[in-house]
Amino acid sequence: MKPLSGNVKIPDVPSTQTAIMKPAEEPPAYAQIAKEHALAQAELLKRQEELERKAAELDRRERAMQGLNQQRGRKNNWPPLPENFPVGPCFYQDFSVDIPVEFQKTVKIMYYLWMCKYFFKEKAKCLFKLETCLIIWLLQHLQ
């Protein structure tokens, strides 16, 4: 049995032409992809520089605050206590330094309301205790 025997004829094709296949789609434009990649890389570098600038600014501010604290010798000033009191103030409080200007008035109002609430609450407790002690003393001495 011969596989190509019989009525199969091989056509004569001139061999001067090379076999080249034309693609159905054009290959992607590598230059365009490279440009997009370069733009993305530039954007990332720009963001990185911006973050580094912000970090440097925060470091500068922090060092400035630490320098001010050391120069001024900020001493704890709250709660306000007499000089001869055996225990000193716990922490430093300064509305003009610690709180932004636009919120200082609101914070001061809330602070004073809070202090008044606890001041009067404690005064009421003291008056109640004093009244109770007075009643007990009167009952003991009037019998």
UniProtKB/TrEMBL annotation:
InterPro entries for this protein: SCAMP
Key words, A-Z: Coiled coil, Membrane, Transmembrane, Transmembrane helix, Transport
Region named Disordered: 1-25
Main localization, broad class: membrane
GO CC field: recycling endosome membrane; trans-Golgi network membrane
Top-level taxonomic group: Eukaryota
Protein localization: Membrane
One record GO biological process: protein transport
Coiled coil: 34-71
Membrane topology type: Multi-pass membrane protein
Similarity comment: Belongs to the SCAMP family.
Name by which UniProt lists this protein: Secretory carrier-associated membrane protein
Organism: Aythya fuligula (Tufted duck)
Source species taxonomy: Eukaryota, Metazoa, Chordata, Craniata, Vertebrata
